[in-house]
Amino acid sequence: MKITRNFFIFIFLFFNNSSLFANDISFDDWLKNFKIYALKNEISETTFDKAMSHVVFLPKVIKYDRFQPEFYEDTKTYVSKRTSSLKVKKGTDLYKSNQSFINSIDSKFSVEKSLLLALMGIETNFGTYVGKMDILSSLATLSFDKRRSKFFTKELITILQLVERNKIDHNILYGSWAGAFGNFQFMPSTIEKYAIDYDKDDVIELKSTKDSFASAANYINKIGWKKNQPCFIKVSLNKNVPKKLLNTSAKKLHNKNKFKILKQYIKDNETYSISENLFGAIITPDKDIIPDAENLEPAYIVFDNYEKILQWNRSLRFGLAVCTLKNKFENAL
Q1: What percent of the chain has pLDDT over 90?
Q2: How far, in Å, are 131, 189, 300 from residue 206 at the CA level?
Q3: How far does Cα 297 stand from its chain's mean position?
Q4: pLDDT at residue 1, as a whole number
Q5: How far apart are CA 20 and CA 149, in angstroms?
Q6: Would you kindly state where each structural domain of the chain is located, as residue ranges?
Q7: Neighbours of 325 (CB within 10 A)
């Protein structure tokens, strides 16, 4: 009897947490099940029917999910593509057109304008490509798919809750294949936690300069960004560096230590003007991605600010690109 009871407990937990996300049913049947789930999560039938009436399965979203540049481009290629001189010029022009406002955001939120420009430049090329995908269909497709269904189901529920509370208009929800929206590509959970109606017009408009810059600054500030602290330094490693110190994944950086400890494993370690008490970690981002990549090249020591960028987008290359472009803006502005 105990075995039977435990079995039914297992089945209950499994179906309450997993069956909604399984792919052994059609998308239409999944959508019917998802509606039941949504109505139990503070979403009215009126809102669901209004927002989800035109949702469809998008096969190309699955293709994009399986073939992201973070998973196949080497670091040099990935970073150079996203930090070009043309991108610096476009960002500088945007800054000059909104100089007073962007400076005020820098000061108010204690987040460098160079970082905000770098994030916007890499995410949407300064608002010129915010994406044209139907976000609700994208999120539904990724929720239906097995690979990351739990994460995207939560995001889909969140965006519907925002529609329910009139925080965002479902008619404007067009963005990236992964469900991100606006100039800085906020996911629904990020909109819920950090987006700001900065111009006080009762609408959070993340494709507008004011709301989007303020929201991005609020987000990066709230997760712990430290103004005027370094992101990373590129280093050449000595061959005696312990393998356990090398990070090849962005999921969780391990074996962090003070720079005075880590610097013993890098060449020309006296040339870096870094506080010896600053904690960092060593990353070798190509090793687990690029076939035949060198064990110790390229290599970087990354600091706490870099990890904040990973909270924005958990990709070692994305973090390096943002911080590289940030440094270029600091020299250009």
Answers
A1: 76
A2: 13, 14, 33
A3: 25
A4: 40
A5: 9
A6: 232-332
A7: 25
pTM to 2 decimal places: 0.86
Burial class (CB in 10 A: 0-12, 13-18, 19+), 85: exposed
Summarised one tens digit per residue, pLDDT across range 250-290 is 888 999 999 999 999 999 877 888 899 999 999 999 887 77
What residues contact 197, with CB distance under 8 A and at least 6 apart? 203, 204, 211
SS3 string of the chain? Answer: CHHHHHHHHHHHHHHHHCHHHCCCCCHHHHHHHHHHHHHCCCCCHHHHHHHHCCCCCCHHHHHHHHCCHHHCCCHHHHHHHHCCHHHHHHHHHHHHHCHHHHHHHHHHHCCCHHHHHHHHHHHHCCCCCCCCEEHHHHHHHHHHCCCCHHHHHHHHHHHHHHHHCCCCCHHHCEECCCCCECCCCECHHHHHHHCCCCCCCCCCCCCCHHHHHHHHHHHHHHCCCCCCCCCEEEECECCCCCHHHEECCCCCCCCCEEHHHHHHHECCHHHCCCCCCCEEEEECCCCCCCCCCCCCCCEEEEEHHHHHHHHHCCCHHHHHHHHHHHHHHHHHC
Closest CA to 263 of 280, 285, 243, 284: 280
Residues 6+ apart with CB under 8 A from 200: none
Q: Which residues of 100-136 are buried (b: 16+ CB within 10 A; e: fewer)?
A: eebeebbeebebbbbbbbbbbbbbbbbbeebbebbbb
pLDDT digits (tens, 9 = 90+) for 203-249: 889 999 999 999 999 999 999 999 999 999 999 999 999 999 999 98
- Cβ proximity of 78 and 285 under 8 Å: no
Q: Please provide residue 307's backbone torsions phi and psi, each rounded to the nearest 5 degrees.
A: -65, -25
φ, ψ (nearest 5 deg) of residue 233:
-135, 140
Residue 271 has a pLDDT of 80
pLDDT higher than 90, residue 109 = yes
